[in-house]
Amino acid sequence: MRRFLKVLAIGAGGILAICVLVAVLTSLGGDGGTPTPTAAQASRGETPTPSRPVTVAPTAAQAAATTPTAPQAAATATPAPQVTPTLPWGTSKEDVHATLAEWLTAELADGKEIYRLTLERIVDGAVSTNPLQRPKEGNRYLFFRIVVENAGTRAHLITSSNFQLRTSAGFDYDPLFAPVGFAEGEGLPQEIGPGGKTRGIVVFEIPEGEQPLFLKFDPNPLTSAELYFDAPNALELVQSGAVGQAAPAQPEGTPGDQAGKSWGTSKNDRHVPLAPGQSGAIADGKQVYRLTIQAIVDGATSSNMFVQPKEGHKFWLVQVLFENAGTSSVHLVGTEWALRTQDGFDYEPEIMVAGFSEGELLSGEVGPGGKTQGIIVFQIPQDAQPLFLKFDPNPFTSAELYFDAQ
């Protein structure tokens, strides 16, 4: 009898526990959603109000630990909507855009490395006290004094080559290699340790009629993080069409397998006439290069006494406009060219190119959508004539551009 009562008590306790559990689940709505309405509520078309969770007030220490500071609150605020259309440069998700203005500070994160830049001074038409530091006729100096802070975890060498300027005409310019005589400061390079900073000047030589479109800071060419200081009217210039856009991203010229030549026979090669005003483009994967012959000088002369042809030779010069219609930056060094003369000899371009009135060596970095212009000079025998001029930006691929003499 005692055993029977004990079993009965245990069974009753189990039934009671099940009832309590069902009641708890019912009060919580089962799956955490809206509770099921009662018959009376359903007949009146009412929706029951969900039960509110119980809130436990935090302790003073917890409140202090969880309450955001002013900078944290600003950082977590709803971001401002992006301007549409967006600028056609600096489109990587790691890129940062700021306004090109004095005393403006911007921060760029490149992995664990953080760079903080402040534009302290901008001088359009800067002047050097050094008589040897003068812009060419029709050009001017555009000067930036910049403070660079290293908020990362390791030391970095910052040089002027980390900066590039694009003007409203769409041309990209590299800074002066060694600016001297400027009262506002000295040029980079400078190594900056973690937590340190440096101040330096970056000077560009640009034509009188061109205005800055953006100043780019690229601390690591192997990663995509770049900082752009955009002119205040940059978006307006893009929307109005005043800024030159990239050439169509497609090859131009006669395909190599249809050119009927004994050179440049790859289907990726392109052939165009070797004459002023002629343009051609080659596609190397997603990278597209477009070039236009602006002038050809057979027998060019240099005012530099150390840049003169050997006896019985002459300088053959070509002035070229280069446009980057691809998706990544291009680094031109001048060795992408070769000239073959009609007697079958091949010539490489001159390394020392100075004193030519037609311009300077076609070289430097050109960003996506940007362009630059310069000269390529060959030293060939006096009686030699060109057969073709070849542009080969990548020796590991087959895409080459040939300007063929007619």
Mean residue pLDDT: 83
Helix share of residues?
10-25%
> How many angstroms separate the termini?
121 Å
Uncertain segments are: 1-10, 19-85
**Rg from Cα:** 34 Å
Instruction: Output the helix-strand order.
Output: HHHHEEEEEEEEEEEHEEEEEEEEEEEE
Largest sheet: 6 strands, mixed
Structural class: mainly beta
Number of helices: 5
Give the strand content: 25-35%
> In order across it, which strands form the biggest sheet?
12-13-23-22-18-19
Tell me the total number of β-strands.
23
Identify the overall geometry.
Answer: globular
Structural summary, described in words:
With about 400 residues, this protein is mostly beta strands. Helix content is about 15%, strand content about 35%. It has helices at about 1-25, 40-45, 60-65, 70-75, 235-240; strands at about 95-100, 105-110, 115-125, 140-150, 155-160, 165, 170-175, 190, 195-205, 210-215, 225-230, 255, 270-275, 280-285, 285-300, 315-325, 330, 335-340, 345, 365, 370-380, 385-390, 400-405. The strands form six sheets. The protein has a six-stranded mixed beta sheet, with no helix packed on it. It has a five-stranded mixed beta sheet with strand order 1-11-10-6-7, with no helix packed on it. Strand 6 (about 165) and strand 7 (about 170-175) form a beta hairpin. The relative contact order is 0.11.
What does this entry show, briefly?
It contains five helices and 23 strands.
Sequence-ordered SSE layout with sheet pairings:
Elements: H1 2-27, H2 39-44, H3 60-66, H4 70-75, E1 96-99, E2 104-110, E3 113-124, E4 139-150, E5 156-158, E6 163-167, E7 172-173, E8 190-192, E9 197-207, E10 212-217, E11 227-230, H5 234-240, E12 254-255, E13 270-273, E14 279-284, E15 287-300, E16 313-324, E17 330-332, E18 337-341, E19 346-347, E20 364-366, E21 371-381, E22 386-391, E23 401-404
Parallel strand pairs: 1-11, 13-23
Antiparallel strand pairs: 2-3, 3-4, 4-9, 5-8, 6-7, 6-10, 10-11, 12-13, 14-15, 15-16, 16-21, 17-20, 18-19, 18-22, 22-23
